[in-house]
Amino acid sequence: MSGDFYSERPLFGGAISSTFPLRFQDVSDIRQVPDHQEVFVDPARDESLIFELLDLKHDVGDNGSATWFLQDLATEQDAEGCTTGVIEVPGLCYRDVPAVITTAVGQMAISKGRQGREAQNLLTVYLANLRLKAVGTDVLIVAHEPILINPLSESATAVGAGLAVPAAQSGCMAMGEVFKLAVSSFKVNDWSLFGA
User: Fold this and answer.
1) Could you tell me which residues come within 8 angstroms of residue 32 by beta carbon, excluding any fewer than 6 positions away?
2) N or C: less crowded end of the chain, CB within 10 Å?
3) pLDDT in tens, 185-195
4) Could you give the angle at the alpha carbon of 76 between the alpha carbons of 75 and 77, nearest 5°?
């Protein structure tokens, strides 16, 4: 069990909400974030949680949509194997059209910011795709958990190079659990956000 405190957090001006640990700080307090994203980080662990609203990809099938988005994200990141699953989000529907929700997990080598391949960190990437077809939107919830921090990465300064310290050892909720909590508690409070 973790010592993390968590609460429901407002997203997109409160039109959406999700529950996750308070240790995740709103990146928009530090730098500009695109309007279609909400980005949160735990700088002490180099973990991130991203909520993104995209136009519905009609040419992507429902069953493999999370895998498709994960592979799209990994196109230039040397992604490794991927597993898929389902997380329930009870009652997430608009005008009786339920959301289709799929998840995928993979490993990727990713560089921070503008750093090159020589500074790539190895991460576990968790991705959920919530397909809100009635409002033409694909919602992505993406969580990044470091496995191995490259000594040349910007991250090495903040969290140290080498194998990442397991969450339980740090008294934190594991990123896989943070991801499940954020997805399962995802709620739309104001459907007019989508022009509905």
Assistant:
1) none
2) N
3) 999 999 999 98
4) 100
